[in-house]
Design brief:
heterodimer; A: alpha/beta; 6-stranded mixed β-sheet; 4-stranded antiparallel β-sheet; 10 strands; B: 75% helix; binds adenosine-5'-diphosphate; binds magnesium ion
C-alpha cells in the first residue's frame, strides 16, 4: 500500500490524579491510509478519546511520534500548526457542546473559511450555502441559532464545518453515538458519501461494535490504553480472539443490524 | 422583567434608579444653566420659597438644582467606573485563566497587589498624583475595582476552557487570543456581571468621598462636594448636608437592591429551565 496518511508510533500519555497514575495511551502505534476508515473501539475509559486528542494536538503526549501527510506533526508550533490543522479535522459527540453555544449556523461555518483565508468576506455567504447543501441542509438554515435546529441538523452543520477546509483526515469521536437510530443511519450515509467523493480518511472512535462493523474498514480494540486486537473490521467483530473483544461482542444484542447499507 | 417585578426589593430598587435616572436626564431641562449660579439669598431653609424648594446654600445657590446635577455626576461616574472595571477585570481574568502557566501567575500576582491596597486609598493616591477631573476619577475608581471581576472571570474560564467548543475552536486553527476573547470571555460574563451592582454602588460612594475631600472634578456639582460644603455650616443649616446625604444613601441602596433583584431573577430563571 502507498505511504500512510497518518502514522502514529509509541504514543504514550499518562494522567496523574490524586496519587494514582492512569496510562490512557500505552505505546499506541497505528496508521491510516488515504480514504480509509480506521475504528478505535473499546469500553468506556479504554483511552479512545485520549488517543484521538493526542493525534489532534489537543493534548500533548509524554512520548511517541505522529506523522501526518509525511510531516512530523508533533514538531509543529504556533501559526504553522494552526495552518496545518486545516487538513486534520474533528467532529465531536455533542455538537451543541462542541460549537459555541451562542453562535449561528453561518458563524460556525464562517470561522474556518475566514481563519484559513479560503474565501473573501463577500464570497463566504455563497460558500456557506454550498457547504450546507453538501451536507444535505437547506441554505436557509444559515441565519438560525444552533439551539433552533434539530440534533441531526446540528451534527450535519458540525460535519460541514469539518469539511470546509478540505481535510484529508477527520476524527469522529462518538460522532453518531448520541443520535437516534434513523438519524444515525443518515449521518453515516453522508460520511460514506463524502469519503467516496473526496477520499477523506476517518478515525472513527466508537464503543458501538455494530456501527463499527458496518462503517469501518479496519478496527483497533483497546483495553486500558493498550491495543488488545486489530484487523479487518468484519473479521475481528465476527470472530474476536481477545478476551475483551469476545466480551464486547457478547454485549451487543443484535450485531450488525444497523440501518446503514453494507459497504462493498 | 415580569419575574423581576415579583421580587419586591427589586421593584423598590428599580423605582429608585428610575427616579434617579429621570433626575439626571431632566437636570439640564429643569435647571438650565450653571448650577453654581447664585439664585437667591444665602442659607434659605427648604420649603420656604417654592421657586427654591430645597432652599439655598452658603452662597445662595439653588440646592435642588445642585441635587439634580449631582445625580448626573454620581450616575455617570458610577456606571462608567463600573463598566471600565468590569471590562478590564474580565479581559485580565480571562487571559490569566485561559493562558495558565506563567501568564496566569504574573496576572494573578498583579491582581493580588492591587487587592491588598484598600480601594479608597488607591483611588485617593491616584487622583492626588494625576489631578482631579471626571476621567481621572473614573479611572481611579476602576483601578481599585477591577480585581473582583478578574478573579470571578478567571474562575469561570478555568472550567470553560475544558469544554468541547474550545477544543473545537483549536481544531479549526483559531488563534488562542481570539479563542480567549471571542469564544471564552462572552460565556464567562454572566457571573462577572452579577458583581456590577456592588461595584456601581461602591464607585458612587468612592466618588462622593473623593469629592468630599476636595478631590472631585471642581467643575461639576457632586453630592460629595455638597456635603463637604454643608459641613462648614452644619449647626446652623444641617439640611445642606442632610439632603445630598439622603440622596446618596438612597442611590446606593437602590443600585444594590436592583442588582440583587436581577441576580435573583436570573437565578430563578436558571433553576426553572
Ligand atoms: N484530563 C484527564 N485527566 C485525568 N485523567 C484523564 C483525563 N482524560 C482522560 N483521563 C483518563 O484516561 C482514561 C481514558 O479516558 P478516555 O480517553 O476518555 O476514554 P474513552 O474515550 O475510551 O472512554 C480514563 O481512565 C480517564 O479517566
Ligand atoms: Mg471518549
Amino acid at each position: 500500500m502507498s505511504e500512510p496518511l497518518l502514522a502514529v508510533s509509541g504514543l504514550i500519555k499518562r494522567f496523574r490524579r490524586s496519587g494514582t497514575t492512569v496510562t490512557a495511551s500505552d505505546e499506541i502505534s497505528l496508521s491510516i491510509s488515504p480514504g480509509e476508515t480506521l475504528a478505535l473501539a473499546g469500553p468506556s475509559g479504554s483511552g479512545k478519546s485520549t488517543i484521538a486528542r493526542l493525534i489532534l494536538r489537543l493534548i500533548e503526549p509524554d512520548a511517541g511520534r505522529v506523522d501526518f501527510e509525511g510531516e512530523n506533526f508533533l514538531a509543529l508550533r504556533g501559526s504553522a500548526l494552526r495552518a496545518r490543522r486545516a487538513r486534520l479535522q474533528m467532529v465531536f459527540q455533542d455538537p451543541l457542546a462542541a460549537l459555541n453555544p451562542r453562535a449561528t449556523v453561518a458563524r460556525v461555518l464562517d470561522d474556518p473559511l475566514r481563519i484559513h483565508a479560503l474565501a473573501s468576506r463577500s464570497e463566504r455567504p455563497e460558500r456557506i450555502a454550498a457547504l450546507l447543501k453538501r451536507v444535505g441542509l437547506s441554505p436557509d438554515l444559515a441565519g438560525r441559532h444552533l439551539h433552533e435546529i434539530s440534533g441531526g441538523q446540528r451534527q450535519r452543520v458540525a460535519i460541514a464545518r469539518a469539511i470546509a477546509t478540505r481535510p484529508s483526515l477527520i476524527v469522529l469521536d462518538e460522532a453518531v453515538s448520541a443520535l437516534d437510530v434513523s438519524v444515525r443511519g443518515q449521518i453515516l450515509e453522508l460520511l460514506l458519501d463524502l469519503q467516496r467523493a473526496e477520499r477523506i480518511a476517518y478515525l472513527f472512535v466508537s464503543h458501538d461494535l455494530g456501527v463499527v462493523r458496518a462503517f469501518a474498514h479496519r478496527v483497533i480494540l483497546l483495553e486500558d490504553g493498550r491495543i488488545a486486537e486489530q484487523g479487518d473490521a468484519r473479521a475481528v467483530i465476527d470472530n474476536p480472539q481477545s478476551t475483551i473483544g469476545k466480551a464486547l461482542v457478547a454485549a451487543v444484542p443484535r450485531l450488525a443490524r444497523t440501518t446503514i447499507q453494507d459497504r462493498s | 422583567m415580569r419575574r423581576l417585578a415579583s421580587i419586591p426589593e427589586a421593584l423598590v430598587g428599580l423605582g429608585i434608579l428610575a427616579i434617579l435616572a429621570a433626575m439626571a436626564l431632566a437636570a439640564s431641562a429643569l435647571f438650565p444653566g450653571d448650577p453654581f449660579a447664585i439664585k437667591g439669598a444665602p442659607l434659605l431653609s427648604p420649603f420656604q420659597d417654592w421657586s427654591l424648594p430645597l432652599g439655598t446654600d452658603r452662597l445662595g445657590r439653588d440646592v435642588m438644582a445642585e441635587l439634580f446635577h449631582g445625580a448626573r455626576t454620581s450616575l455617570a461616574v458610577g456606571l462608567a467606573a463600573a463598566a471600565a472595571a468590569i471590562a478590564v477585570g474580565a479581559v485580565i481574568g480571562t487571559l490569566a485563566g485561559f493562558a495558565g502557566g506563567i501568564v496566569d501567575e504574573a496576572l494573578m500576582r498583579l491582581t493580588d497587589a492591587f487587592q491588598t491596597v484598600p480601594s479608597f486609598l488607591l483611588a485617593l493616591a491616584f487622583v492626588s498624583v494625576v489631578g482631579p477631573s471626571l476621567t481621572v476619577v473614573v479611572i481611579a475608581i476602576a483601578l481599585s475595582a477591577w480585581t473582583g471581576p478578574a478573579r470571578v472571570a478567571r474562575a469561570e474560564v478555568l472550567s470553560i476552557r475544558e469544554r468541547d467548543f474550545v477544543a473545537g475552536a483549536r481544531v479549526i486553527g483559531m488563534h488562542p487570543l481570539e479563542i480567549a476573547l471571542r469564544e471564552v470571555l462572552p460565556n464567562a460574563l454572566a457571573p462577572v456581571l452579577a458583581l456590577s451592582s456592588v461595584i456601581v454602588a461602591s464607585a458612587i460612594l468612592i466618588e462622593a468621598a473623593l469629592s468630599f475631600l476636595g478631590l472631585g472634578d471642581p467643575n461639576r456639582v457632586t453630592w460629595g462636594s455638597m456635603i463637604a460644603e454643608g459641613r462648614t455650616v452644619l449647626r446652623s443649616a444641617p439640611f445642606l448636608s442632610i439632603v445630598p446625604g439622603i440622596a446618596l444613601v438612597l442611590t446606593v441602596l437602590g443600585v444594590y437592591l436592583a442588582g440583587e433583584g436581577v441576580v435573583e431573577g436570573t437565578a430563578v430563571r436558571k433553576s426553572l429551565s
